[in-house]
Amino acid sequence: MSMSSSPPPAHVLLVSAPLQGHVNPLLVLGRRLASRGLLVTFSTVPHAGLKFTHGDGAAVAVGRGTLRFEHLQGGTLWPPNDPRYCAPTAGGEMLLRHLEDAAPAALAGLLRRHSDAGRPVSCVVSAAFAPWAGRAAAAAGVPHAVLWTESCAVLSLFYHYFYSLADFPSNNPNKAAPVDAAAVPGLPPVAAADLPALIHAPENLIWRQVLVADLRGLRDTASWVLVNTFHELERPAIDALRAHLPVTPVGPLFEPDNHGGGVHDDGDGCTAWLDAWSPGSVVFVAFGSLIKPSRDETAELAAGLAATGRPFLLVVRGDSNNQPELLPDDGGRCKVVEWCEQGRVLSHAAVGCFVTHCGWNSTTEALASGVPVVTFPAWADQPTNAKFLVDVYGVGVRLPRPMARDAVSRCVEEVMSGPEAAAMRARAGEWKAAASAAVADGGSSDRGVQGFVDAVLSLKGAGDD
To answer: What is the pLDDT of residues 279-318, one digit of tens each?
Structure first.
């Protein structure tokens, strides 16, 4: 290398399937890596159903580094305007199958273009459920890390189940027999109904197939397993799983002002509406980007919320086919939106309760915001997260299925003003403080991020020798 030329900076390429719950935490991680002086490029396939505002080739300065955006495209990969990205397929199955087939070649081309442009990639970091990214990185000889976007407890359950390291209860919803706590180190007993759904899912389900491929990659090719959690939240699970995987907590990957792929305004009007209510008075209801309640569930939910007499903010997705007449008209006490910046809403002082599907992003955002919850899990890791929110973290109650208005109002009141409400709020506040401390300078997750940055810089240094 010529002494007169400066070496290119260490370059990390972040890759995500175009799923909102995977894009959001990976973007936050990207900002934290860039702020420490790395060149970071974020790549996914933006489409109409994804809240993502950064154009192809855009770049922003973050701290001492730069965060670039370069869309994954080319070959047989669908273009961003392809309607199949938003097709009502079951859980994105068609999308996952397409990515398995088309994305590796597109990513290989992107790696080559970066090398040709004089910014070779030092490390690829892929979000979970994109095992093709690890394969493409390995084929190109580039070190690989995975950002696990669910809890460490769920990762441990998956790992112990699929590698037959523990006995698990059968797939019988009426069977209350728990997993032996000693069989899955670091975890409390977990009943069959609280296990992640993919454990007992059919083997031909694409989500399960992708998970199995992910677990194989975590064990065989990933040099780092970064987890969207923090040590204080899952200390026993993290410490125990390190006997099998190089787990590093780097979360919570939650920044209210940067949530939702870079949308910073209050175009949904939620902040202004929340400002009118007293602290802790509003019930916030959102079920994520994939869950779509039925008309009957929406009607029962709205009636139960209205019966409390409390103000509530309800997210009803624009493609849900639930008609406005299902929702109450109570003179401004209810606000219904198709989408909102969830992190910003949860961080608002007016929010006193969160009715949630318990996706892991929503779980960590609730804990990091200090908001107690009413849990209504549907599938995937949500039943496990709900169990931990209620039984381990002590910040919520369970809303039983099927959804019924009386149960909705009863559970909301239990969290807002019941005998245990004050204790739930206090515990939620403690988790908020712990989350804040974890990402602060010198905190457990801050050290995890810095350790990863140091490892990438050492890779870069070795490559320059």
So the answer is: 999 999 998 766 677 788 888 999 999 999 999 999 887 6
The Cα–Cα gap between 75 and 196 comes to 35
Phi, psi for 183 (deg, rounded to 5): -75, -25
Residue 7 neighbours by CB distance under 10 Å:
10
Q: 159-167 — which CB contacts under 8 Å span 24+ positions?
A: 159/215, 159/218, 159/241, 159/244, 159/245, 160/184, 161/199, 162/211, 162/212, 162/215, 163/215, 163/219
Query: Nearest to residue 43, comparing CAs of 61, 17, 75?
Result: 17
User: Which residue from 170, 218, 184, 223 is spatially nearest to 210, judged by alpha carbons?
Assistant: 218
**β-strands 59-62, 65-69 pairing:** antiparallel
Q: In this structure, what token pair is assigned to residue 461? A: 């240094």
CB proximity list for 16: less than 8 A, separation 6 or greater: 22, 23, 26, 42, 43, 44, 126, 127, 130
Structural contact between residues 338 and 313, judged by C-beta atoms closer than 8 angstroms: no
* Catalytic status, residue 348: no
- pTM (2 decimals)? 0.91
Burial per residue of 255-283, b for 16 or more beta-carbon CB atoms within 10 angstroms, e otherwise? bbebbbbbbeeeebebeebbeebeeebbb
The CA–CA distances, whole Å, from 322 to 66, 294, 399, 421 equal 42, 7, 21, 32
| pLDDT tens digit sequence for 147-182 | 999 999 999 999 999 999 988 877 665 555 666 544
Out of 11, 22, 71, 160, which one is annotated catalytic?
Answer: 22
